[in-house]
Fold Retinol dehydrogenase.
Amino acid sequence: IASGHTKMVLITGCSSGIGLSLAVMLAKDEKKRYRVIATMRDLNRKDKLVEAAGDAYGKTLSLAVLDVCNDESVKQCVNDIKGRHVDILINNAGIGIVGPVESITIEEMQAVFETNVFGVIRMIKEVMPDMKKRRAGHIIVISSVLGVQSVGFHDVYAASKFAIEGFCESLAVQLMMFNIKLSLIEPGPVRTDFEIKMIQEVKERECPGADPETVHYFKNLYLPSAINIFLAVGQTPKEISKHIKKVMETSKPSFRNLTNSLYAPIVALKYADESGDLSVNFFYHMLFNLGPVLHYTVIAMRFLSFGFLKNHSVSPK
Ligand SMILES: NC(=O)c1ccc[n+]([C@@H]2O[C@H](COP(=O)([O-])OP(=O)(O)OC[C@H]3O[C@@H](n4cnc5c(N)ncnc54)[C@H](OP(=O)(O)O)[C@@H]3O)[C@@H](O)[C@H]2O)c1
């Protein structure tokens, strides 16, 4: 129950990764400022969360079923909250997809958009009208650095994150009239077991429909670099959660929030050249001409990331 200084927080996709870590971190807030409704589409997957929440489970953290792709499920979950009162909505549920576009079916692409785009919009449509009435609230969307600048073989995932960024960019302007904050969180790679497993799995997968040359570029150039980058500069779900908590607790949160300072130059590159050629040429050379150099650069970054870089993140301000 949201009362006094306690804020009601609704989070989607809490069975693993960032959602799980954030739900636990907020529920264990020292000052007990949050009541967390940690949601997931399948409650059979609750054990890891319940175990991590420990004593907070049943006190500052409760569980609810919510499938962002299902109108009824979303409505039911919000109706079950007293007064439908949500102070902070965190749209975290999302799915990834990587590979040559020829090998991904339209149905698979639609599933990504259903979750990453329409899932977020469905949540916002359900919660925003009550926030507007109260003239208060904060909507947070876990986007990605790939929602600002894409790289090869992430075409469909990036398209979904670009779509939600465009939606939010427009909505944020209107929401200012109602004193509702909207913030995008843009992590770079996040080291979850899931992510590493997905990349390994993709490595072994056939890519039906894609020509051998494209498959070669994908498997032998792109994937090894991607794995190296994940291991070298990937953040942990806990680091991302800390960043989100900071954004929640800042009085004037920024609209865009990169979590990894190493990605700031990549974003700057994009804004430095409105033709877009600088970015496209840069990534082309990185991938196809500088593969071996990239490998050593990544080793150097990995070395550095154990030192001071690891402790640096982009401040919400
Ligand atoms: N990992 C990265 O490198 C990275 C980088 C940038 C941004 N992100 C973004 O961060 C967010 C969280 O991802 P993660 O890395 O923590 O991955 P994750 O561990 O796979 O977590 C994704 C969560 O979303 C849930 N989910 C999927 N479809 C859903 C649906 N229809 N309804 C409700 N929940 C659903 C999953 O639940 P199930 O257990 O039921 O599948 C899971 O709990 C995503 O939006 C992702 O795009 C991740």
